[in-house]
Amino acid sequence: MPLRVVVAGATGVVGRTLLPRLGEREHHVTALVRKPERLEGVPADEVAVADVLDPDGLAERVRAAEPDVVVDLTSGFSAADRDEGLRRTAELRARGSKNLLDAAAQAGARRFIAQSMTAAYQPHGHDVLDEDSPLWTEAPDGWGEVVRSIASMEEELLTRAGIEGFVLRYGSLYGPDTAYAPGGELHARVCGSELPLVEEGMGLTSFTHVDDAAGVILEFLEGGDPGAYNVVDNEPAECSEWLPAYARMAGGPAPVSLTLDQAKAQLDWLTVHQLTEQRGATNFRIRETLGWRPTWPSWREGFASLFGLWPG
Fold first, then answer.
1. Are residues 17 and 213 in contact, defined by beta-carbon separation less than 8 angstroms?
2. How far is residue 93's CA from residue 152's CA, in Å, rounded to a whole number?
3. If we measure between CA atoms, which residue out of 296, 222, 182, 212 comes closest to residue 17?
4. 3-class SS of residue 52
5. Alpha carbon 162 to chain centroid distance?
6. Which tens digits make up the pLDDT trace of 126-158?
7. Where does the pLDDT of residue 311 fall: very low under 50, low under 70, confident under 90, or very high at 90 and above?
8. Of 2, 152, 186, 294, most Cβ neighbours within 10 A?
């Protein structure tokens, strides 16, 4: 059954993958954007120009779209400066997502689907974490601001009466146009020997290909029960495993190795955290309750495809 779907953040990496698929299923798509010029080449039935931080203008545009479902893919992580990206993302989650949820409820939307992230989980030993694990709201610096804003957004969405809320906690997003793609920020860091291994590091990363990030939204337009879901592949990996493999496929040098003390002296706090103590996530809940299976079950095949090394 065709639905009316509003997608905020339509110009991001997940939005650009999602919109064509919505069109293929004959859903009516309204792309909600701040800068319509960035939508070039991205299909949409309508374009609504609004800032999610402007509640009045936002409410007017969403009401006019008459949505059945609203999808929130807004993010500030594309900012060139990491601190600015953290600040912008925290603001979008704390204020923008609430404004969008209010607008969706006022417009009579039945469902609201919001992007979140598994990286927000509080580190705990060597565990792979599920959706009942706490978010790290006491994390330091700008990262703590982001996690607290995410926790607030998730609670607001999952407890709002009158609308079904879905939180999709993605792993590290990779695929075309992401930081992992040729020319992306992580690709440049790896090929420039700027992302090392840490000898004492046991950081785990869960990965999500943008194909899977977009595909699961299609499943939740009508199916599934409201709640929070980890949307990740089947193979969380230590940095000592995925980083050298990525460097080889990208044609870059092998990562250098640092001690923990050297890493703390040379790298920013967030990078050290990701390499040494971040935990991975399990996709058991979404596999069992929705019957979902990732198109890319392992980052190994996904990375290989990204560099033209995987058949098909």
1. yes
2. 8
3. 212
4. coil
5. 26
6. 789 999 999 999 999 899 999 999 999 999 999
7. confident
8. 294
How buried is residue 125: exposed, middle or buried, by Cβ count under 10 Å (0-12/13-18/19+)?
exposed
| Domain annotation for the chain: domains and CATH numbers | 4-178+207-233+282-294 (3.40.50.720)
**Nearest CA to 121 among 101, 103, 137?**
137
> Which among 181, 194, 180, 172 is positioned nearest to 274, based on CA atoms?
172
Beta bridge partners of 258: 198
pTM of the model as a whole = 0.95
For 224-281, the pLDDT digits (tens) are 999 999 999 999 999 999 999 999 999 999 999 999 999 999 999 999 999 999 999 9
Contacts of 201 (CB under 8 A, 6+ apart): 238, 239, 240, 260, 263, 275, 276
Counted residue by residue, the chain has a size of 312
The values of phi and psi at residue 214, to 5°, are -75, -40
* CB atoms closer than 10 angstroms to residue 246: 24
Please report the DSSP string for 224-288 in residue order.
S-SEEEEE--S--EEHHHHHHHHHHHHT-PPPPEE-HHHHHHHS-HHHHHHHHT---B--HHHHH
What single-letter amino acid sits at 186?
L
Q: Which residue's structure tokens are 């869960």?
A: 206
CA-based radius of gyration for the chain: 19
- For residue 309, how far is the Cα from the chain centroid? 25
If you search the block for the tokens 């309508």, which residue do you land on? 46
Amino acid at the residue 138 = E
Contact present, 292 and 229 (Cβ < 8 Å)? no
**Helix extents (H) in 107-182:** 141-159
